[in-house]
Design brief:
Number of domains: 1
Strand order of the largest sheet: 1-2-3-4-5-6-7-8
Helix content: 40-55%
CATH class: Alpha Beta
Distance between the termini: 5 Å
Number of strands: 8
Length: 274
């Protein structure tokens, strides 16, 4: 499998986006995932710069990542806006010649006490079916993020499987985030039912209690069983992407990312998925 990283790790560096991409290549990553909102001010210019730089570096873009929490909003115009916005992500992915759009669909509101949870669930299902159709026409896929938070709509593997069953579209798949698996109490064996339904992988560490996105080795996760299960399950992107939060010392961000890269390569070799 390839090893990639999400470019958001470089945001605290204060450097132009091209510098972060250059560091990504120099450290030794095979691919990169891009976190960039296609509707933000100046997005068209940023997309062009990113595409040009990655082509020059021979650094393939595998995934674009974004949150579309409004897909499950109780206001129909808000849901329609987020359908449009998600389509813009897929258009951007197509321009990058990438593989998947990593999407976070959000949380139940008001402690599930005002809007019936099954309604938010159904709005999400309907939205992802529409987006699956749009993605399929572009020969792309969507990958759904499991978030390990109490009110997240997709916060357990059971809920992920149920959602995929309800959407029932081949272009809508699961993203496997190893840190989120740990935090949601999901062991490695639980990944195997996702065979044929897993689109992409995120890797990072945590303290076992709260979300962390640390370099592997700085937390408590035993990665090898997860990585072996991922190898057996099969991933459509054939890529494991590092997702890192900010370094505690921004001046040493390159060292922070290099540490994560080297440790992850080591773990992938141990698990037989390098």
């Amino acid at each position: 499998m390839n090893l990639g990283m999400i470019n958001s790790a470089w945001e605290q560096s204060g450097q132009p986006l091209e510098k972060g991409l250059e560091w990504t290549k120099e450290i030794g990553f095979d691919t990169v995932d891009i976190q960039l909102d296609p509707l933000e001010k100046g997005a068209k210019e940023k997309i062009a710069r990113t595409k040009k730089c990655c082509k020059k570096l021979k650094l393939p873009i595998v995934s674009v990542a974004g949150c579309s929490l409004g897909l499950c909003d109780f206001n129909a115009p808000v849901r329609e806006f987020h359908i449009k916005r998600s389509k813009a992500y897929l258009d951007m992915l197509d321009e990058f010649d990438g593989h998947n759009y990593l999407i976070v669909i959000g949380e139940y509101i008001w402690q599930k006490e005002v809007i019936p949870p099954k309604m938010q669930w159904q709005w999400g299902v309907e939205g992802l079916r529409r987006l699956g159709e749009y993605a399929a026409k572009k020969k792309k896929i969507l990958t759904l993020e499991l978030e390990p938070f109490k009110l997240s709509i997709l916060n357990t593997m059971d809920e992920m499987e149920r959602f995929l069953d309800d959407v029932d579209h081949p272009a809508v798949t699961a993203n496997i985030d190893i840190s989120h698996m740990e935090l949601s109490g999901t062991n490695a064996a639980r990944l195997r039912p996702l065979k044929g339904r897993a689109g992409h992988v995120h890797i990072s560490d945590c303290n076992g209690k709260v979300h962390g996105d640390l370099p592997p080795g700085r937390g408590v996760i035993d990665f090898v069983p997860y990585l072996r299960a991922i190898g057996e399950t099969g991933i459509q992107s054939n890529t494991i992407s590092l997702e890192l939060e900010y370094s505690p010392d921004p001046a040493k961000i390159v060292d922070w990312v290099r540490e994560a890269h080297d440790k992850t390569r080591e773990l992938m070799r141990k698990a037989g998925v390098a």
